[in-house]
Design brief:
47% strand; mainly beta; 141 residues; five-stranded antiparallel sheet; Jelly Rolls
């Protein structure tokens, strides 16, 4: 199953002073700036009802996805700077950082506590797959 996760930025304005980039339009209730060290792993879950967009400012993300409960393999994407990608609800996902990375996340829901956030998550175990473990080990070296 191939999913088109990539999204275009809404608009970009450029002049002699530099650029203004309008990343999203719509109903976004949460925005986060996240930094991740080379070789680190994030996500390894899916969201029951939330969805999010991510925009890579610098670095690189190896992004793995698969449908919830799938026994099939995963899809692997390489996300580079100035790329936006989308994670719908009910899509298992894992992020492996092949470089020190800075990215922005924009979510549909605004969780007021860590408990509310965790209540929307279902943890999965991508790392039990030998191919995923090998990829993580390669990127950590």
């Amino acid at each position: 199953m191939s999913t088109n996760i990539f999204r275009e930025v809404v608009e970009k304005y450029s002049d002699a002073r530099g650029d203004l980039v309008k990343l999203l339009d719509g109903d976004i209730k949460s925005s986060l700036l996240i930094t991740s060290k080379k070789g680190s792993v994030r996500a390894n879950h899916y969201h029951k009802k939330d969805h999010h967009y991510c925009y890579v400012v610098s670095g690189e993300i190896k992004y793995l996805t698969r449908p919830v409960g799938s026994s099939e393999g995963f899809e692997l994407y390489t996300i580079e700077p100035e790329k936006m990608f989308y994670t719908p609800e009910q899509l298992e996902h894992l992020m492996i950082f092949s470089k020190d990375t800075v990215f922005l996340t924009f979510s549909k829901n605004s969780f007021r506590s860590q408990k509310e956030y965790e209540d929307d998550l279902v943890r999965v175990d991508f790392l039990s797959d030998p191919k995923v473990r090998d990829l993580v080990e390669q990127l950590q070296n």
